[in-house]
Q: What sequence folds into this?
């Protein structure tokens, strides 16, 4: 099974194709399999190659999300699973890297872009904390849709991020007139 760790940063994963821009942003070079600016198209990947894509903390850095999702669709096999994490728009992590973060998201954004190319949402959850001592809060918040919706409307607790899982049901090409 071919797996792509897209925008891997310092999280090199054995058995995956690790792709990122090898820039010294955090004081160290990343270990990579492929170095490429993900704002430049096309990506140096084969068509219909991957069955799993992990995009952790990447989308908020992309200039053109439509072109990015179109490119990921091209390199994915049908039934490919894509795991996506982005910072929540009200969280401190959204503004943490202001020079390179373009936006933060809430739970209802982005679906149209994914659906446009044949991706379907399989799951979404809010992450209150990635800290191992506070991660129990994630279970409470994501227990049912009501809790997520309530938190989204009345953000008493501000999540750090949102995790989505998409599945590629069919590949769609959209020819839009400009």
A:
């Amino acid at each position: 099974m071919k797996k792509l760790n897209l925008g891997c940063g310092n999280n090199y994963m054995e058995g995956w194709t690790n792709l990122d821009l090898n820039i010294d942003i955090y004081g160290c070079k990343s270990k990579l399999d492929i170095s490429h600016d993900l704002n430049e198209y096309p990506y140096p990947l084969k068509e219909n190659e991957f069955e799993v894509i992990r995009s952790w903390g990447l989308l908020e850095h992309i200039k053109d999300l439509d072109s990015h999702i179109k490119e990921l669709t091209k390199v994915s096999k049908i039934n490919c699973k894509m795991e996506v994490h982005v910072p929540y728009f009200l969280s401190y992590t959204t503004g943490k890297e202001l020079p390179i973060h373009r936006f933060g998201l809430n739970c209802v954004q982005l679906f149209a872009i994914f659906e446009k190319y044949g991706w379907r949402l399989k799951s979404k959850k809010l992450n209150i904390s990635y800290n191992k001592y506070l991660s129990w809060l994630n279970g409470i918040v994501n227990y049912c849709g009501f809790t997520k919706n309530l938190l989204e409307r009345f953000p008493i607790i501000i999540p750090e991020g949102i995790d989505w899982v998409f599945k590629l049901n069919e590949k769609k090409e959209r020819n839009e007139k400009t």
In short: Helices lie at 65-75, 92-96, 111-116, 136-141, 145-153. Strands lie at 3-6, 17-20, 34-35, 50-56, 76-87, 119-127, 161-168. The chain has five helices and seven strands.
